[in-house]
């Protein structure tokens, strides 16, 4: 098969597209913008569906030795969210697991939460089957009437249905809320109805700010997308919570906009990756740029880094106190200063809200939309990713 089959779009982003909403229906036929705008509704619906599931059996058997969240892609990211929201004070280990099966030590004392938007991912199915064989408590989250639901029924385990209306990467909140509520039943996290309502309201408000009809100069997602166009993005989070959001942004930039991206924790960056700012796409290229040249006359304009810092607002995400995270904040300020000295442009998204879940939502929403607008500016359909389909076909041969 021709390796370029199905590849389309344009190399240079067309900024004018983003202020012409009439073109979005044509360029986004699958409705990725619409699905992303449903994040608040996903929180409400998933909370209602989880309330209808029989989670009482989890509580009746007491606190587990450990909790394993099994899934891959966006489903796997739910495990990162739970581990971060639970924080270091969680009474038991919370372990995201992205491989088939479960860790060798999992047994009757443990809980496995298998997550799959489609209900048929090998990783989630393998984990659910293994948990059943080993006598571990199982919770399954996924599409109704799926293979995963069948496994849960055989194991007589709680199953929380997630209606399949969107691609998995646009269903983060539909998958995350059931995982959090199962963990709440186990006594591992404090997520109450007010937290869920405020998170949903935050997502609704950000969806309104990022709506297609809002022009670029007032739309934070469009502005972020235009800033990133033609660059190599580096996305760093200032706290564990912000790092989850940074890695989520890397997921959507890769899948929706087809951009290469470096993501991670700001603390890790200080141990080596911050050197990127001095490299051939950072300070070095900026030092050789003629600042007086007309941008329209520059030939072979080099690709540059674009730094995005996700900052957690100086709040302690691990234990929900208002103690400043002085180290993280000083580190974020230092990196911004380094970038400024090297001429590397930097965008900052700062968390807002009271609970850890709402703050996470405030760090995820605008970047989610930005990845879609960046795809549209390049003439790419953010829903249809030919390489993903082709890889699945090749892997199943």
Written description of the protein model:
The chain has two domains: 198 residues, Rossmann fold (3-Layer(aba) Sandwich), CATH 3.40.50; 155 residues, Rossmann fold, CATH 3.40.50.10490. A five-stranded parallel beta sheet has the order 2-1-3-4-5, sandwiched between helices. Strand 8, helix 14 and strand 9 form a beta-alpha-beta unit. Helices cover 45% and strands 12% of the residues. The protein has 397 residues and is of the alpha/beta class. Helix 10 crosses helix 15.
> Globular, elongated, flat, extended or rod-shaped: what is the shape?
globular
- Count of beta strands: 9
Q: What would you give as the CATH superfamily of the largest domain?
A: Glucose-6-phosphate isomerase like protein, domain 1
Beta-strand percentage range: 5-15%
Whole-number tally of structural domains: 2
Rg, Å, rounded: 22 Å
> Strand arrangement, largest sheet?
2-1-3-4-5
Uncertain segments are 315-322
Distance between the termini: 13 Å
Structural class based on helices, strands and sheet pairing: alpha/beta
Mean pLDDT: 89
Given the structure, what is the number of helices? 16
SSE order: HHHHEHEEHEHEHHHEHEHHEHEHH
The proportion of residues forming helix, as a percent range, comes to 40-55%
CATH-level-2 architecture of the largest domain: 3-Layer(aba) Sandwich
Task: Set out the fold topology.
Blueprint: H1 24-27, H2 32-37, H3 39-52, H4 56-60, E1 67-70, H5 74-86, E2 94-97, E3 111-116, H6 122-134, E4 137-142, H7 147-154, E5 159-161, H8 172-185, H9 193-209, H10 220-228, E6 231-237, H11 240-256, E7 262-265, H12 266-269, H13 283-287, E8 304-311, H14 326-342, E9 346-350, H15 356-377, H16 386-395
Parallel strand pairs: 1-2, 1-3, 3-4, 4-5, 6-7, 6-8, 8-9
């Amino acid at each position: 098969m021709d390796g370029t089959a199905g590849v389309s779009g344009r190399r240079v982003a067309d900024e004018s597209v983003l202020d012409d909403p009439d073109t979005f229906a044509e360029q986004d036929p699958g409705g990725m913008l619409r699905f992303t705008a449903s994040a608040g509704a996903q929180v409400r619906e998933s909370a209602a569906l989880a309330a209808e599931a029989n989670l009482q059996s989890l509580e009746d058997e007491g606190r587990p030795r450990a909790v394993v969240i099994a899934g891959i892609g966006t489903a796997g990211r739910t495990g990162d969210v739970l581990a971060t929201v639970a924080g270091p004070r969680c009474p038991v280990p919370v372990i995201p697991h992205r491989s088939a099966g479960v860790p060798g030590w999992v047994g009757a004392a443990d809980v496995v939460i298998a997550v799959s938007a489609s209900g048929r991912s090998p990783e989630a199915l393998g984990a659910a089957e293994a948990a059943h064989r080993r006598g571990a408590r199982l919770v399954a989250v996924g599409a109704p009437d799926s293979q995963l639901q069948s496994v849960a029924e055989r194991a007589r385990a709680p199953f929380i249905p997630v209606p399949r209306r969107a691609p998995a990467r646009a269903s983060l909140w539909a998958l995350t809320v059931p995982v959090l509520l199962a963990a709440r039943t186990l006594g591992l996290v404090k997520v109450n109805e007010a937290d869920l309502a405020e998170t949903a309201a935050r997502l609704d408000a950000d969806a309104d700010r990022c709506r297609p009809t809002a022009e670029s100069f007032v739309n934070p997602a469009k502005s972020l997308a235009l800033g990133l166009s033609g660059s190599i993005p580096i996305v760093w989070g200032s706290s564990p919570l912000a790092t989850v959001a940074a890695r989520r942004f890397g997921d959507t930039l890769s899948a929706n906009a087809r951009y290469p991206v470096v993501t991670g924790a700001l603390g890790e960056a200080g141990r080596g990756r911050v050197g990127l700012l001095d490299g051939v796409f950072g300070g070095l290229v900026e030092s050789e740029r003629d600042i007086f040249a007309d941008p329209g006359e520059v030939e072979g304009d080099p690709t540059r880094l674009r730094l995005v810092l996700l900052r957690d607002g100086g709040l302690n995400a691990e234990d929900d106190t208002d103690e400043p995270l002085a180290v993280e904040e000083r580190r974020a300020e230092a990196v911004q200063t380094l970038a400024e000295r090297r001429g590397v442009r930097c965008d900052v998204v700062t968390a807002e809200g009271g609970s850890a879940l709402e703050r996470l939502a405030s760090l995820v929403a605008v970047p989610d939309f930005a990845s879609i607008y960046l795809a549209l500016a390049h003439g790419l359909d953010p829903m249809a990713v030919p390489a993903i389909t082709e890889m699945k076909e090749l892997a199943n041969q």
